[in-house]
Amino acid sequence: MNQPDTHSRHYSSVDRLIVRIQQHFSPQTAPTTPSPAEEFQDEPLTPAEQRHSAGLMRVNHAGEVAAQGLYIGQAATARADSTADLLRQAGRDELDHLRWCQERLTELSAKPSALTPLWHGGAVAIGMLNGLGGDRWSLGFVAETEQQVEKHLSSHLPRLPASDHRSRAIIERMIDDEAGHRMSANAAGGRALPWPMKVAMRLSAKVMTTTAYRL
User: Fold this and answer.
1) Does domain 46-214 match CATH 1.10.10.10?
2) Domain limits of the chain?
3) Are the C-beta atoms of residues 63 and 208 closer than 8 Å to each other?
4) Per-residue model confidence as pLDDT tens digits over 77-135
5) Which residue among 32, 65, 98, 202 is buried most deeply as judged by most CB within 10 Å?
6) How many Å apart are CA 52 and CA 64, to the nearest integer?
7) Alpha-carbon distance 208 to 196, whole Å?
């Protein structure tokens, strides 16, 4: 007797949202891809340098928490399977980033942002709202988000202590991956967002990054 093909089952938006949230909070802790930091020795940092590196990596961790939320919300409301698949693949990459940042924070004797639940919950809601605007809008939101993230991460590189090679390796790899997500979203038909939306995204990101550096 043939077993039912569970992959062919139709899932509602709510079903997909629940599945993605369960995957995000699964007990698995090891990244799918090893951290780029493993290629470098952990060089000694002064207390001030360690606090500064920890602040930057806490910001990056918060950004990856938000990215997970956005992709969960957008994948849950995607209309085409191809769009949902693209979002899920990007989400898997972002989950690697999230865990790399968490590992680096632990090495720096620091903790993630105390507002992590807020970043995640708010991002899920924003992701769902953008997904409801249609796949082209949702993909355009991905492309614009990743472009802004690339610029943000690039601005961290000159601010890192010169001897913090492990954090630098993580950020450089994240920049490459974000660029790949941006290009994939554009190639899949993402539409350019209006400039007021881009400005609003930059302002909201500024609030999060400024707050996460300290909290």
Assistant:
1) no
2) 46-214
3) yes
4) 899 989 988 998 888 888 899 999 999 999 999 999 988 888 888 999 999 999 899 99
5) 65
6) 19
7) 19
CA dist 87 and 142 (Å) reads 9
Number of Cβ within 10 Å of residue 179's Cβ equals 14
How wide is the angle at C-alpha 155 spanned by C-alphas 71 and 148, nearest 5°?
A: 35
| Prediction pTM value | 0.82
C-alpha–C-alpha distance, residues 38 and 63, integer Å: 22
SS3 assignment, position 46: coil
DSSP state string for 89-119: HHHHHHHHHHHHHHHHHHHTT----TTHHHH
Helices (DSSP H) in the chain: which residue ranges? 13-24, 47-77, 81-107, 116-132, 135-156, 165-187, 195-214
Helices 13-24 + 47-77 axis angle, to 10 = 160
| Cβ contact 150:178 at 8 Å | yes
Q: Nearest Cα to 64, choosing from 34, 35, 38, 97?
A: 97
User: Phi and psi for 34 in degrees, rounded to 5?
Assistant: -60, 150
C-alpha distances (whole Å) from 91 to each of 34, 73, 97, 159 are 16, 11, 10, 27
Residue 73 has which token pair?
């919300």
Q: Which residue has the tokens 């909290």?
A: 215
